[in-house]
Write a structure and sequence with these properties.
Chain A: One of its GO terms (biological process) is transmembrane transport. The complex is a heterotrimer of chains A (about 325), B (about 290) and C (about 425). In chain A, about 65% of the residues lie in helices and about 0% in strands. With about 325 residues, chain A is an all-alpha fold. Chain A has a two-stranded antiparallel sheet. In chain A, helix 1 crosses helix 12, helix 3 runs antiparallel to helix 9 and helix 4 crosses helix 6. The longest helix of chain A has about 35 residues. Chain A is globular, with a radius of gyration of 25 Å. The two termini of chain A are about 15 Å apart. In chain A, about 50% of the residues are buried. Chain B is mainly alpha-helical. Chain B has a single domain, classed as MetI-like (MetI-like fold, Orthogonal Bundle), CATH 1.10.3720. Helix content of chain B is about 75%, strand content about 0%. Chain B has 15 helices and no strands. Chain C is an alpha/beta fold. Chain C has two domains: about 190 residues, D-Maltodextrin-Binding Protein, domain 2; about 230 residues, D-Maltodextrin-Binding Protein, domain 2. In chain C, the strands form three sheets. In chain C, strands 1, 2, 3, 6, 9, 10 and 11 form a seven-stranded mixed β-sheet that branches. In chain C, about 60% of the residues are buried.
Chain lengths: ~325, ~290, ~425
């Protein structure tokens, strides 16, 4: 494949290809200490922030999780009891299953739409492409809080534009906040906010796929759809994996939308999602220790799931 | 259609040229209708907001009244929220970008003790749920006496493992080792090499990290919600939510729903403008983070 | 809101820190920070500051209800960041007491105010001789109804809950799109209905026994409330929309709901927002469980507390007692702009209040109904973890509304969950 030769920078508009061989200089002959010291100094400020705002808080959360504080007895060391409680807490497990169900449906739907959008965008060469890209990105610029409030109004039964659709056919207005529809309504808010973002990420990756790869397929007589599925999609598999991982991480932390929408939807309980449960434990019930336990458990689960995902997608990437 | 015809079309692998447009048009409708609603709703007075059709204009055109009222309500606190939000996100984005650029370059082009471990850990750091950190960070910062100050929002926002990761990938792929070596032979200092050679070459990555951290802080709700209790320090997200809750609480005594909607509109506009203006740059960066 | 000068001198304004350096020791007034979310509160603060030279208030609105409590609880956990004086609703008082967050104002003479306030309110604000809160406003309940529609369809205004259920059927017959009311998923509202039914599910006295709490949600008095309302919801006669949303407001204003079991603060709440139906509403006493009885309940109400983080608890107590207290200027704002229901007895009894005619209620003097209700209210206690109780009760009710739980099991399930929670927190639970 043709890649920018060493010494030529990729043009500003295009994504850099990902095939350049990584070459970390190992020049022990010339001033090992000066070189490594410079490297350390470059990383040091970031490292300090990581220690102060990631390592220390995580350590503190872990420490807190080993204590139990009760209203009557005060704080006492309880070892792993908190974790035992978390893993057997029906409310937490309920919330966890709900988020799992949510993710299993919402993530593929959203990424599927985003991929279709990216492929469509890739096939558009007119000036419209820029306009589409811009509009697709706009929901991402809307704070989740505002997005949730906005959809709260849009879902409204009395003055939202959507719930009345069924009354055109003589039915009752749709209640977007009740029953099984609630999870769908929440999923729509998330999908609305993040599909465009993922479309842009995938499209950006598609732009980096060398044209030569299509040429061969076209000469082989492949249809556009075949090319999209057999050439383009595999070529950007890593970008898709990355989008999927970030979506999984985001979904596991699901918080803002249900917290805001709880004002419209009484069905959103204190333990609707694990993160909401952790928030309520801390800020409504003053159980900071148990909240830390839940947060830590949640963080650990996210970590494991995400790492497993990376591992699997790398293995698959290596095989093909 | 034969293969030959297809080859003649403007780009390889192009299907019926209308299909992509139909797909995108459907997407646009989905993305824009809610935003259109905000735009229209912001032109309505409170009674109109609650009574007129959602996606069409009300009896009057109250946009400018709403904006005026927005900046007068509570002694003009909305203006403060806007300034705060700009300050928090601007400072966090600049700081996080600088840190990420330094670190990403350091990891990509230097070797030193502990580097491998740190790189592996970096991937893990990306996966730590940010919300899990907020509560312990609050308890720590309160012991240091800096909760309910601007620092309580800005300092934790400087953490951007993904930014460092993205810069590292970008440097690896687009900054040739030979170029840096040549500069070293010329006795240029490492800092000068970074500023004069590396930074211009990784500009798309830097703009991307800047924009992403800007958006992340601009849109952040949980961190300032927990850290701040002085309304004069709130960013827009927390301030508008407070107003929304107050609107529900005080339906009879204060008119706020129209202000929440107008305030939401004005909170979105600056970011959209930033994205439009910097489009050339961020487009190059977003694709760079694919996992290796 | 805080003024510009306050921003320059940040220390003087940030909660707790640097505030209240002692009354007049150096000739300067003590500054007391206050968190409150009353509507129109600025006028009340201004009135206080204008009439006091030794103490001045720095007021912040950090959020409504749960939002403010969340901030208070984090501040108490962290050990800093709480204000000197905080607005706290009645049901939250025992919670903050057990968190060791509140100052006993009795040591600064607050017991002198006992006779000033409605008896039920004083009893909820205190624990024996310990004064943890100074009452401000309350929410004696009464039934708001659409007089024009009840008249037109000749439906008698219900005097008992049985008649209420009958009225629900007749309302549905008159207008299939209408409901007698909505089951609002509001912990305080359901609590008010339970209170009125003679249900006394909770008991707690920190002073008597820190670890003992009474929880009995399954008594017949409590269950009949859920049986009645749950039954109406199941039959489709009562709507399921939460209160205080724009939807609920629109529903009240469009004839979708014909009644609302409302509180003393409701006239002010609805008057500004229900434009279409203004003048068509009236207030009647709450329907009774036993014909001819006079049992009443309360929905909402709040107090001022002094926090343990107050630098100058004496000055803070002065603020808590006198912010409203007997201040005519404060109640002027409180009654006429913020529409609070006063728990100060002589303010409530003032003909200016009881005799006030409301255009929204077609000239009816509704306070003539609310004031006797407040006087009739008896003892009602809360748990020191009422957020959990209300939260669980709401979540279980929501399940019943969604059809995933029977209404009959709501209270039993909540009882089970609350008892488990209490025991987990180290309490000994009695029924």
């Amino acid at each position: 494949m043709t890649r920018a030769l060493p010494g030529t920078a990729p043009k500003a508009g295009g994504a850099p290809g990902r095939r350049t061989v990584e070459r970390v200089p190992r020049r022990r002959s010339r001033g090992v200490t000066a070189h490594s010291l410079a490297g350390m100094l470059f990383v040091l400020p970031f490292f300090l922030v990581v220690v102060a705002f990631l390592v220390v808080p995580l350590g503190f959360a872990l420490y807190l999780s080993f204590f139990t504080k009760s209203l009557v007895l005060g704080s006492r060391f309880s070892g792993l009891d908190g974790y035992l409680r978390a893993f057997t807490d029906p409310l937490l497990l309920d919330g966890f299953l709900r988020v799992l169900l949510f993710g299993v449906v919402q993530i593929p739907v959203m990424l599927g739409i985003a991929l279709a959008g990216a492929l469509a965008l890739d096939a558009i060469t007119t000036r419209f492409a820029m306009l589409y890209r811009l509009f697709a990105f706009m929901p991402y610029a809307v704070p989740a809080v505002i997005g949730a409030l906005m959809w709260g109004f849009l879902y409204s039964r009395t003055f939202g534009p959507f719930s009345g659709v069924t009354s055109l056919f003589g039915g009752d207005p749709v209640d977007f906040f009740s029953g099984p529809l609630l999870l769908v309504s929440l999923g729509n808010v998330v999908t609305w906010a993040w599909t465009g973002y993922n479309t842009i990420v995938m499209h950006s990756a598609l732009q980096g796929v060398p044209r030569e790869m299509y040429e061969a397929a076209v000469i082989d007589g492949a249809s556009p759809v075949q090319i999209a599925l057999r050439v383009k999609v595999p070529a950007i598999r890593q970008a898709i994996s990355l989008a999927a991982i970030f979506t999984v991480i985001g979904t596991m932390q699901f918080f803002t939308e249900p917290q805001i929408m709880a004002r419209f939807a009484p069905q959103i309980s204190a333990g609707y999602t694990p993160n909401l449960y952790a928030y309520n434990q801390a800020f409504a019930y003053s159980n900071f220790n148990y909240s830390a336990t839940i947060s830590f458990t949640l963080g650990f689960v996210v970590f494991v799931v995400a790492y497993a995902f990376v591992f699997v997608s790398r293995r698959r990437g290596a095989r093909s | 259609m034969t293969a030959a015809v297809r080859v003649r079309s403007r780009r390889f692998g192009e299907p019926n040229p209308r299909v992509p447009h139909v797909v995108m048009a459907a997407g646009m409708l989905y993305f824009l209708v809610p935003l259109l609603w905000v735009l229209i709703a912001a032109t309505k007075s409170q009674p109109d907001l609650l009574s007129s059709p959602a996606l069409w204009f009300g009896r009057g055109f109250a946009l400018f009244d709403n904006i005026g009222q927005l900046f007068r309500e509570d002694d003009g606190i909305y203006g403060r929220w806007l300034v705060n939000t700009a300050l928090y996100s601007g400072a966090s984005a600049v700081g996080a970008t600088v840190l990420a650029a330094f670190a990403g370059y350091g990891l990509a082009r230097f070797s030193f003790w502990g580097k491998r471990f740190f790189e592996t850990a970096l991937l893990g750091m990306i996966m730590v749920p940010a919300t899990a950190l907020v509560l312990p960070t609050y308890l720590i910062l309160s012991r240091l006496g800096i909760v309910n100050t601007v620092w309580a929002v800005i300092l934790p926002s400087l953490l951007s493992p993904f930014g460092a990761y993205l810069v590292r990938v970008y440097v690896t792929e687009s900054v040739p080792v030979e170029l840096i070596d040549a500069a070293r032979v010329d006795r240029a200092s490492e800092l000068r090499i970074f500023w004069q050679i590396v930074v211009p070459m990784i500009r798309p990555a830097i703009v991307t990290v800047f924009l992403f951290t800007l958006v992340a802080t601009w849109n952040n709700y949980f961190l300032p919600l927990v850290m701040l209790s002085d309304a004069d320090l709130y960013p827009l997200t927390v301030g508008l939510t407070t107003w929304f809750n107050t609107a529900q609480q005080e339906a009879g005594t204060r008119v706020l729903f129209n202000l929440v909607v107008t305030g939401a509109l004005l909170a979105i506009v600056p970011l959209v403008i930033a994205f439009v203006l910097l489009q050339r740059f961020w487009r190059g960066g977003v694709g760079a983070g694919a996992l290796k | 809101m805080l003024t510009a000068g306050c921003l320059l001198a940040v220390a003087a304004c940030s909660g707790g820190d640097g505030a209240s350096e002692g009354t007049g020791t150096d000739g300067k007034p003590a500054h007391v920070s206050v968190w409150a979310w009353y509507p129109e509160f600025k006028g009340v603060v201004d009135a206080f500051n204008a009439s006091h030279t030794d103490v001045q208030i720095d007021w912040t609105n950090v959020g409504t209800g749960p939002d403010q409590y969340a901030k208070l609880k984090t501040a108490f956990t962290a050990g800093t960041g709480a204000p000197d004086v905080a607005m706290v609703e009645f049901q939250e008082i025992p919670t903050f007491v057990i968190l060791e967050a509140l100052v006993d104002m009795g040591q600064y003479g607050a017991n002198d105010d006992k006779d000033l306030y409605a008896e039920w309110a004083w009893s909820q604000a205190t624990d024996g001789e310990k004064v943890y809160a100074i009452p401000v406003d309350g929410g004696p309940m009464a039934l708001m109804y659409r007089k024009d529609l009840f008249d037109r369809f000749q439906i008698p205004v219900p005097r008992t809950w049985a008649e209420y259920a009958d009225a629900a059927v007749r309302i549905k017959a008159a207008d299939p799109g209408a409901y007698i009311a909505s089951f609002g998923s509001d912990g305080g509202w359901i609590n008010g209905l339970m209170w009125q039914a003679g249900c006394r599910p909770y008991g707690y006295s920190r002073a008597a026994a820190k670890e003992k709490v009474k929880i009995n949600l399954t008594s017949p008095e409590c269950k009949k409330v859920f049986d009645l309302h749950g039954g109406l919801v199941e039959k489709g006669l009562m709507a399921k929309d939460p209160f205080f949303t724009a939807d609920a407001t629109a529903a009240l204003d469009s004839g979708k709901y014909w009644t609302w079991a409302a509180a003393g603060w409701t006239p002010g709440y609805v008057a500004g927002s229900l434009k279409n139906t203004a003048g068509k509403w009236a207030v009647a006493p709450m329907p009774q469980w036993t014909a001819g009885a006079d049992d009443q309940g309360d929905w909402g109400g709040s107090t001022f507390t002094v926090t343990k983080q107050a630098k100058n608890p004496k000055a803070a107590t002065e603020v808590a007692r006198e912010l409203f207290g007997s201040s005519k200027a404060a109640w002027d704002v409180g009654l006429n702009k913020a529409f609070l229901y006063p728990l100060v007895k002589n303010v409530a009894a003032d003909p200016a209040f009881t005799g006030k005619a409301y255009d929204f209620f077609a000239g009816q003097k509704v306070n003539e109904i609310f004031v006797p209700v407040s006087e009739k209210l008896g003892e009602f206690q809360y748990t020191p973890f009422q957020d959990f109780v209300f939260g669980d009760l709401n979540d279980r009710s929501a399940e019943a509304m969604a059809g995933s739980r029977s209404w009959g099991s709501v209270l039993e399930e909540t009882q089970k969950n609350v008892v488990a929670y209490a025991q987990q927190q180290g309490f000994t639970v009695t029924q």
